[in-house]
Amino acid sequence: MPDNSTEQTKCKIVVDAMGGDFAPQNAVVGAVQAFNQSRDFELYLVGKKSDIISVIKKNNLSFDERFIINAEHIIEMGESPTTAIKLKPDSSIVVGAKLVKEKKADAFVSAGNTGAMMSASTLIIGRIPGVGRPTIGAEIPNVYGTCYLYDVGAGKDAKPIHLLEYAIMGTIYAKEMGGVSNPSIGVLSMGEEEGKGNEVANEAYNLLKNSKLNFIGNVEGRDILTGKVDVVVCDGFVGNILLKFGEAVPKLLKHLLEQTAKKNLIDALKIVLVKSTLKKALKSLDYQEHGGVPLLGVNGISIIGHGSSTPKAITNMVLKAKLMYDKKLVHKIEKSISEYSNKKTDSE
Amino acid sequence: MPDNSTEQTKCKIVVDAMGGDFAPQNAVVGAVQAFNQSRDFELYLVGKKSDIISVIKKNNLSFDERFIINAEHIIEMGESPTTAIKLKPDSSIVVGAKLVKEKKADAFVSAGNTGAMMSASTLIIGRIPGVGRPTIGAEIPNVYGTCYLYDVGAGKDAKPIHLLEYAIMGTIYAKEMGGVSNPSIGVLSMGEEEGKGNEVANEAYNLLKNSKLNFIGNVEGRDILTGKVDVVVCDGFVGNILLKFGEAVPKLLKHLLEQTAKKNLIDALKIVLVKSTLKKALKSLDYQEHGGVPLLGVNGISIIGHGSSTPKAITNMVLKAKLMYDKKLVHKIEKSISEYSNKKTDSE
Is Transferase there in the keyword field (chains A, B) (predicted)? Predict the structure, then answer.
């Protein structure tokens, strides 16, 4: 890394140039575009140096080669995460995570192997003290804005205490990143009344009821979309299934419209006419607009993107990392979790 | 009930006239409309006789009063199911379930208190021998037709063996009611590979792998909509949350379109123009089109509807009950479950 001791406080973001189905092309182009939009941070690209330089040249990008960090190996999409990070210490994911661990960088962004990114973030960067399980959230557009859903896939078979941690971290994220003043929190359940959840949800309900968070009780699947609640917590198994189901909805709609168009010429004409309008309306459902998802609870900024990330998605991931840095998100989570842990110790 | 010993084999369907937010109006009108569409069954209305007669008169319906079975009480929407069915033996739900239990009727249809309908069906009508837990399924429209999702709310904290039972029952339902020739089955999970589920899903995977069912392995949330699989099994907690989330999607879309319309006059005009087309396309997402959901695994036909059921939804529920009768669904489930139980005993 270049010596820039004069700019110690400037945010440093590392992007995995080899991460994603269309890497290094999309990762490099997207990262450099983010850098060009806001030069208020240092961008590092980690990966095979020669490949990265080829992409830069091919796309006529301007990027200082001193900010490329060579990493010879790539953790492929199908590889077993924990084995891969052990066996490939010079892979872009491991090298990137280490830079954050060693405080040489503030954020690491990758659209590569999701499991490997999670393992590297949790095992290499490490958890914030007091966090039992880091979490990945989803920002789901709804009638009033956004619903922040935790967890959507960092862990399955979560314990009730993990759902409380998700609520603490989700509250900070919704407040700082979403501008929600006093985020309301709900436990995802089969009904609104107390006791309507499964065992884990019911115990989490009790923990949240006794916390200082703005807990509104149980919420149902529909409430994610109706805007009744800002932050929803659930086991990662439920959240992940829900998220993937939701992501398939726009595709289903497209199909239903096409089927309708086939049946009737007038409908077909109307659909052609309205296509761009529909696209605009559905824009907020498009994950590319949101960029990747941060892994909250690790001791640094870690943003994980879809394998199919476009350059635009990568750009948004980098800008999100920058905003998380500006908002001191990691520090605020650490503080809030520690306050809760102290409270717990006090009462014991 | 009228003496019609000459017609012992004719299907007898009992409709809870007092069930639903708009009862007895919607229940009575919907049931009589179903009867007028196909007179090939006997329709019984259970509830407060005087109220039922008022609705019949008010709507100028023609219905033989001898087919009204008086039940003085109503289990209200908010009541605790098990307590209510104990304390109100002369409620429409208990009376209706008893008629099926006593083989005086083949099917019971209600849009009343869902929990009470489930309890009455399970405790009064009783389970088919070998069924550990009855299940409610959802028919979710997708790119290729329909995905049958079990369980969506009959029970939470299901055991792996219950998911196998759901698969057996769901296979018969998809085949007989949906015309799917050899329904494929998937376990809802966080990834396609073996071991990607939570504990219950992973154990269910093993049970299904060793069954004679057309098991294709784990499926993800998106596969419910992509049409990759015909029958998906999961714990009722997950299924219920997913179903309610899905039901809120059309509302969200409506909202997104309205927001888009507000921003731009041309978009607004296009949306007005295309409204009926969109409505047609979204028709298959409308639960009213599907009617209520059957509780599979009980020893008779039990169909449970939304509290907000329209007359059309009630009509469809009654016609569904009739089709289940014609297809001998209860008998076929009994046979299939017993074959599996025997196999299990053989191998022990």
Answer: yes
* Domain termination site, one of B247, B262, B277: B247
> Could you say which of B224, B251, B270 has the minimum Cβ distance to residue A277?
B270
The reported pLDDT for the residue numbered A117 is: 95
ipTM exceeding the 0.90 mark: no
Domain at A31, CATH number: 3.40.50
Q: Do A257 and B281 touch (CB under 8 A)?
A: yes
Give the range with max mean pLDDT: A43-57, A154-168, B134-148: A43-57
B314-328, pLDDT tens digit by residue?
Answer: 999 999 999 999 999
* pLDDT tens per residue across span B35-68: 999 889 999 999 999 999 999 999 999 999 999 9
pLDDT at A311 over 60: yes
In a domain? residue B50: yes
Give A236→chain B minimum CA distance, Å: 9
Are A189 and A237 part of one and the same domain?
A: yes
Cβ <8 Å between A198 and B156: yes
Residue B187's closest CA among B214, B220, B213, B158? B220
From the list B157, B241, B255, the residue facing A220 with the nearest CB is B241
Contact state of A270 with B273 under an 8 Å Cβ cutoff: yes
Distance (Å) from the alpha carbon of A104 to chain B's nearest alpha carbon: 34
Three-state secondary structure string covering A19-70: CCCCCCHHHHHHHHHHHHHCCCCEEEEEECHHHHHHHHHHCCCCCCHHHEEE
Residue A68: domain span = 1-131+297-348
**What CATH number is given to the structural domain containing B191?**
3.40.718.10
Distance from CA of A328 to the nearest CA of B (A): 32
Answer yes or no: do B143 and B62 share one domain.
no
